[in-house]
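New to this. Please check this record:
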Amino acid sequence: MLRTASNAPDVEQRPLEKALGYQIRMLRRERDLSLGDLGAAAGISQGMVSKIENGTISPSLASINAIASALNVPITALFATFEETHDCSHVKRGQGVPIERRGTKVGHLYELLGGGIRGDVVIQPYLITLNSEAETYTNFQHDGTELIYMLSGEVIYHHSGQDYHLEPGDALMFDSNGLHGPAKLLEAPVTYLAVISN
């Protein structure tokens, strides 16, 4: 195993920093913020936020407090995943958390069905409902991979220059960095499960 002259602990030996970084990344993504967005809100460089999220540095208390304020959570929430747990998220029908995602349009209801599970991959499951007055919008764009599973209604869904006719039981998985969104509602209301992973 190669070692450097530095006395700094290896990343694997930084359980607190790794847990803190994971929690910050999860909260940032739940709020649909980029690294730059969070850095600007907290008064910290984007590069520093990236290092904190990756657990490669021990941030100062001032930096941790600034990030907590930018995320609008108590500072203790950033340490919620430090103790080893095997997490589970259970959401009863109709009790998902309504979320206002960046770019959300009139008539688009996002209901977050779970969150807070530890791991290297952040997964955000949403139940999305488009009512008959929903505005069509094909310019959604964000990091990650998205899977859509149709539950009811019919919609023409656009992704990166192509249109897909989706009906109940259909699935569509795509790179979320490509422009996407509902281009035409054929039968409303439209409901689908959208799972976004980063």
Q: What stands out?
A: Helices lie at 15-30, 35-42, 46-53, 61-71. The chain has two domains: 11-79, 97-197. The CA atoms of residues 52 and 103 lie 27 Å apart.
